[in-house]
Design a protein that fits this description.
The structure is a single chain. By secondary structure, this protein is α/β, with parallel strands linked by helices. It is built from 10 helices and 8 strands. It has a 4-stranded parallel beta sheet, with helices on both faces. Helix 4 (93-99) links the parallel strand 3 and strand 4. The longest helix is centred in the first third of the chain and has 18 residues, at 16-33. It is globular. The model has no long low-confidence stretch (mean pLDDT 97).
Length: 233
């Protein structure tokens, strides 16, 4: 193990809530392994409102160009690996990876590895509507032999709106928690063996204590992989 951590570049958030959680977990992970030290980070934090508008408009090419350029900026600042700190924005991970000569630690890969290590192959996926509807997430999971089950309507849209209208703005309500539990229960009845918090804000309303099956916090797994990379010889 190294005596000082490698520098990690964060493409932040994309909400500030999850960025802070990434930072906390990275700092705690490094401090736990190297007492008296903390994570070495360079961060590009986005204006969530601008990113959300581009997502809603379907401007994924524009977002890919932005994230790729910013990843290069992070590498120029000394980053030895890149984290895209949002599940949905891993849609542009291939473009980011192509733009830099350092690893892009992929949130789906780390989550899928944990699912397989637990002996599971079918999981409930809670995330944004983009993550739950579009193929980039489920297809990458499938490469590891993991099937993801998204909510059926109207639950899918309700979870998407919960993320963007409430959680992204730091609003956590009992109604939001009840919605997440209800939608999750419906997917478990369809055969899911575990639950993936596939949006970095989902743990604000659904935690491992809320379900009786294995729970996979994609953010926490992603951060743990970054700590391991940062400390590896």
């Amino acid at each position: 193990m190294r005596t000082s951590p490698r520098r990690i570049g964060l493409l932040g958030g994309i909400t500030w809530h999850s960025t802070l959680e990434y930072e906390r977990l990275l700092h705690e992970g490094i401090a736990g392994a190297l007492p008296g030290q903390s994570a070495d980070l360079v961060i590009r934090h986005y204006n969530f409102g601008e990113i959300a508008l581009s997502q809603a408009a379907g401007d994924w090419d524009g977002l890919a160009e932005l994230f790729a350029a910013d990843a290069r900026w992070l590498v120029a600042g000394g980053a030895e690996a890149i984290l895209i700190c949002a599940n949905t924005m891993h849609l542009v991970a291939p473009q980011v990876a192509a733009a830099v000569n350092v690893p892009v630690i992929h949130i789906v890969d780390e989550t899928a590895k944990a699912i397989r290590a637990a002996g599971l192959d079918t999981v409930a996926l809670l995330g944004t509507g983009f993550t739950m509807r579009m193929p980039f997430y489920r297809d990458r999971m499938a490469e590891f032999g993991v099937t993801t089950l998204a909510p059926e309507e109207p639950g899918l849209t309700a979870i998407h709106e919960l993320v963007y209208d409430d959680l992204a703005n730091g609003i956590v309500t009992d109604a939001g928690r009840a919605l997440a539990k209800r939608v999750t229960a419906d997917i478990l009845e369809r055969g899911a063996q575990g639950v993936v918090a596939g949006c970095t804000e989902i743990p604000m309303v659904l935690t491992a204590d809320d379900v009786d099956v294995p729970y996979f916090d994609a953010l926490a797994l992603h951060a743990r992989a970054a700590v391991e990379f940062s400390l590896a010889d």
